[in-house]
Design a protein that fits this description.
Protein name: Nitronate monooxygenase domain-containing protein
Number of strands: 2
Pfam families: NMO
Structural class: mainly alpha
Largest sheet: 2 strands, antiparallel
Distance between the termini: 16 Å
Number of domains: 1
Helix content: 25-40%
């Protein structure tokens, strides 16, 4: 079982404020994209994906390195349209509960 996305907005998570804001956007939708890294991954659609996904070459890690300063600047600015909003298929069900509560709910621990 993979459950990383379930923990993205837990208080203990190191998720950036911009990523958290993107995960909470009303009307957000998931997309498979290589716009940020050159490798296909699931994330949430945002301005960067809309502007660059269609033209992003499949050359990881080169694209990842080229977009790294852009993503860092967007994170510092709290801009969810400029960061990679990685999230798995069940992202819409995430909660901001403590990690132990999420783990119990997922049935991983009793």
């Amino acid at each position: 079982m993979q459950a990383g996305t379930a923990y993205l907005v837990c208080p203990e998570a190191g998720t950036s404020g911009a990523h958290r804001a993107g995960l909470r956007r009303l009307g957000a939708s998931s997309v498979l994209t290589r716009a940020f890294s050159g490798r296909v991954a699931r994330g949430l659609r945002n301005g960067f994906v809309d502007a660059h996904d269609e033209h992003a070459p499949a050359v990881f890690p080169q694209v990842d390195q080229l977009t790294k300063p852009l993503r860092a600047a967007a994170a510092r600015a709290g801009d969810p349209d400029g960061v990679s909003l990685w999230a798995g298929a069940g992202w819409a069900a995430i909660t901001d509960e403590p990690a132990a509560v999420v783990t119990r709910r997922l049935g991983v621990i009793a």
